[in-house]
Amino acid sequence: MILAQNIQMFWYFDMPIQNWDKYKVFWNIISLPSIDLIAAEYQVISHFFLGVMIFIYSILAGLALILILLYFEKKVPQIFTMAIRLFITIACEILFIPIVIVLLLGVKYSNSSLEYFSEYEKANKTDGIRLGNLGEFFCALAVVLLVIFGVFYEACSYEIRHVNDGILNDGRIQAKPEVVNKVVHFCNCVLYVSIGLMNYEVMLILMFLLYCIPSVYIVISLHCYSRLLNTVKAFICIDCALICLFFWIGYRIDDAQVTLILTLIFQIVLIPIVKEIVDYRARQIKPLSQVLYLKFEVFERSIRPLLINGTYKETLIEKMNRNFITHREKLNRISQAYYANDVLGNCSLGLNKIFAISHSGLNIVTNYQVFRCKKFLKTICETRSESFKLYRYFLDFSKIKDTDRNFCELYHKFFINMLDHHPELPKLKSLITEVIKDLYFLETSYSSLLMRFPNSNEVKQNYGSFMLNIICDKERGNRLISRVDTLGGRKKNTIKNTLKFISDRCFLVISGNPSTLGKLLFFNQNLANYLGYSYDTIKTLNISHFLPKHLASKHDMYLKRFLENSISHVAFKNSALCLVDSQGYLCECNANCEVIGYENSVNFICAIDPLGFRIRHFCLINEYGYIHGHSKYFATVIFSKLKYIEGHFIQEFFIDLDIKNIQYDEITSHIIKGQINNIQIIKKIYVMLKESKIKSSILIFLYITEDENEVCRWGSTNDFYDMENINPNDNKIETILTEGIDEYRESTLKKKVSIFDEKKLSFDGLSDNGLINDRSKQNNAIKSSYLSMNDVVTIAKSTQVLKIAKIVLLMSIVILIITNIVILIYISKEVEHSNSLTALTNLGDLGYYLSQIALIVRSLDLGTKINIPAFYNTIDLENMISNLISSQTKLLDDFKSWSYCKDSEVVKNNVIPYSVYENMVKTKYGSLHAITGMFIEKSELILIKLRANNTNYENELFFIIFNAFGSSFEHIYQAIIGLKNCEIARVDELSSVNNSLMFAGVGILAVAFTFITVYLLTIDVYLNNLWETLHKRVMSGFIEVKLHLTERLAHYHDLVEYSDSEPLQHSAKHQKKVRFRHSLRYLLRFSILFISAAIFYIVSAFVFNESIHKFLYYRPLLTSTLIQRKIKTNELCFFTLENEFQYTNASINKLYPYFSPMQDIHNSIYELVELIESTKITLRNPNIMKFMSADVKGFIYEKYNGTRAFMKLGTFRALSFLMQESLFIVMDNKIDEFYVVDDFFDEVKEYSEATKAISMEVNKDSKNFINLQVSNLIYFTSVFCVMWIGLYVGFYLPYLSNEVNITKYITKLLMIIPNTFEIRNR
């Protein structure tokens, strides 16, 4: 498909070379996968273009929506994500070339005057694609978006994992060749659209050179893991380059047959050639030993088979580590991570490798692969890796503890604020909400964490005490506390479960981040107890503080070295270690350490098992006997006068001890002498030398004891490091001679036992047992938290009132919206009718055509009878008759639109008098439609006779003249005036109905506001009773809660307890009752809605509705005025003509002496002039002038580009000039020359054409202006409706829901606050 889409760009349909017509069909078929050609074939290229635009911007909108959801931490529907992926794949992979071509055509033709696409054979019009500057901009933007999508698609859609999927393995190490290929496709599309037709040869040469770039790049890089895919991709690029070259050759030698033959032959030859090229390049890959320190791109090609088959196991990780040290490329770490998981089956090691590097920076392509790898391995480790689960435990438990501490402080703060002299209601609500939310979070989090780690003593203690002392759930709390293991013995071999929770096991997490290397991130309380540190002190320390000095100085270096060269996630396992306690002594332990990656860093998780009680002591020495550190009573046992003998040699105390010759694990005995309290003492000491290896470091321990039972345990390695607790009463120490030794034993026993317990603090000087007994007594005194029936009723009433307020507000908004929608529908419907004025326009056109036909017929009649050139010809008459027929049809078709008007009766009823000559003049009555039909019939007869040079048409002429300018025409004119008045009356009715609807809406809102006001006034009693109940309960349980909170903060969070609360409690008892103005707060917030509704109605009534009414009122007035001026101009012209020929035998008075209603022509002209002058007042009305655009105003009042001088100052003055000309011709008391009348008629013709065009523009402008006002009203109403909906959804609904929740939260607080004391009603 990609090959066919590329071939499309190498030719065009009318290439000027020989034999092209023979082979054009072949190339057309080959290029069919390019969808734009199919669209062009069926002449739907414009539709395809619009579809592509919608498609691209839909992808953009979808991605934006996903980002918004992610920003607000909302879940993105999976089907939506899959749809966006499918769309991007179609746009960036399957149809990339045709979509780019169509979008570039949009850029090309948006501002073009070309009618057809020159790129396609079929006549595809560009009308649907010519969108102007805006279209050009959006097309260019769509092209840019598509290119960006394409580059990111190629950069992010590939699989970098080295998986053995056979010859069709679609994985690849990098995306650069694919990105280059995509850019080449885009550049070729640009060349094809821009210069393909103008510079065909240049385009082919440039395309050939461009195709050579990805061809060479693919062959050199061999970026795909599959040899077959490398061959296919190279073949496509090379084939495109050669076909492009063949088209150029065919064009140069002017023969299309050459191009076809070369293309077909090379398809067969090229396949083995490309295969051989790829195989040759693969054979040039150097062995691993030669590329170890080269760039990873080269290094990866050498180790690719090893990454897939896993022959080298961990050794390959070592090689890759060495390459990474030389070239710190992220792709190296990504490959290591996938290799560790897929081949070595060690997901934790893979996670450590990938989390050691960051996925931030400008290299988006590689950083995305880092992010993807992290996400993949993190998902796997969450189910498989115990160390990762443990790390997540520390993260979650730390977050829970922070929330727990914050809850305690917040809970105490709530009590303090509640007992204040003047409590602030908003602050109390905020505190209650935060307290309950934290409470729910802690309940859920503790429960979830306990389900995941049921053996964690810390979770059980924290959760149990939380349930017992905070939530007052004594049954569950006591059950959890009873499940805490304290001094339970440890069976042998439990050490194999290195990361399991055991009662006395110490855990700590050490940072592997270079900026905080060695810092303690997390630890459990056992560690603090074991080493004798307080919680606040230990969390600020580095791991080096717990190591002997000679190890601490180099420990950071060891950590860095391990992180760089690690081939396993286990740092060490079951290793004998010693840690330095808070006093500087060494503590014996067994340790396990694993490495886990998280959040752009790797960290060390250590599980430390303190050894059980032992009657032995030890020191840490080097091979020469130099003491680096020792246990607490080591110096006492060997009669040293110094408490610390660090820095001395062991030979100073054991004279006969030869360190160099002593064997490891060999027990020797030595006699030492010393003095205690000036008493000489001799005792036998047993000595053993032990070695512990941790990676490349060796620790040498020297153990001593004077207890024979302890020596018996030294014979077995398992027994030597067995951590089973030993009862100290069963161990006998041979020599107890001094008080110092007793002190030593008691202290040792005390310390060794205490490390297994969580820290217990006394309260008010009581011992642990005393505190427990005291607490039991208090618990017996505490009354159960309960709710009385009055409390239940109060809560129910408060909740009910708030819910009803929510419903009333919703109904008010719904009524507002429905009322305004009804008003808009009614206004739009009426405006559509009133704004069209079709009936008035058609009636005016009918009157104009009647008068114009009469004028033309009379002009032709005079030309025939007195032998003068006619001012019109028969073609003019025929055109007018045709217009009149059309106008007659429209008049009848549009009758329903103005049938409501009384004057519409003229259309169908016989109420119009008309004159006919049937041997004598008769007056008859008929409908406007019938009279118009007779008028058309008479006019057509005259036209036929005139063309036959027959002047026998006196009867027809009589009908036309005396009915066009007689009483019949007067009825038409009066119907126009009446229809104008009906339209004005309808506009007034529209305004009246609109005002009624608005008043109805305002009335309903007033009722709703009154109801909600009265209803909310009742809520104060219920809510204040509820708050008063809470206040009493707070006062009742404050001391008890304060006691629990202080103990919890001190016991579990190491915070100083709060100051004594008695003064506060005492002052609280003298407070007044709680009284808040809840209803006033609600009404102030609800008034926003009603005030906005009032503003809306005021603006709608006095701005939009008033404006629409005013312009609808003046529009029929303007239309009727323009009609009058057109018709009366024809009458003026007719009477002027009759005046000139009234003394000839062809005058009307001479032709029809028996019926001469036109005796006083002068008066008729005067009346016409006065009537036309009266229309000037209407046209000068400022409200009328608002209808007109600037151009139309200029044409009427300022300047019109006419051929005659009288039109230069506008049509308004031009008509005045025509009236003056008419008066001049009539009043000069002489027969004017023919050219004077002829000029007058030419001027009238030009004026009529100008008036016709300007009337159409005025009609369109006025109509658009009113439509704009209606549109503005719709927009204004829509904005307010959306604002009201948003106000309800975004403000009132959350606010009222929060208020309902506050009542629920108060209920929850009433259930958990202990009711310790009886408080009298104040």
Query: What composes the largest sheet?
Result: 5 strands, antiparallel
- Which quaternary structure do these chains form? single chain
What's the number of extended β-strand segments? 12
Mean pLDDT: 80
Q: What structural category arises from helix and sheet content?
A: alpha+beta
Shape: elongated
Helix content: 55-70%
> Helix tally?
44
Q: Name the strands of the widest sheet in spatial order.
A: 2-1-5-4-3
Distance between the termini: 88 Å
Sheet-strand content, in percent, reads: 5-15%
Query: Uncertain segments of ≥5 residues (pLDDT<50)?
Result: 487-495, 725-785, 1059-1070, 1318-1322
Radius of gyration: 51 Å
What does this structure look like?
Keywords: Membrane, Transmembrane, Transmembrane helix. InterPro entries: Tiny_macrocysts_regulators, TPR_TmcB/C. This protein is α+β, with helices and mostly antiparallel strands. Helices cover 64% and strands 7% of the residues. The chain has a five-stranded antiparallel β-sheet with strand order 2-1-5-4-3. It has a five-stranded antiparallel β-sheet with strand order 7-6-10-9-8. A two-stranded antiparallel sheet has the order 11-12. The longest helix is centred in the C-terminal third of the chain and has 79 residues, at 1234-1312. The chain is elongated, with a radius of gyration of 51 Å. It contains 44 helices and twelve strands. β1 and β2 (520-523) form a beta hairpin.
Question: Care to give the gist of this entry?
Answer:
This protein is α+β, with helices and mostly antiparallel strands and 1322 residues long.
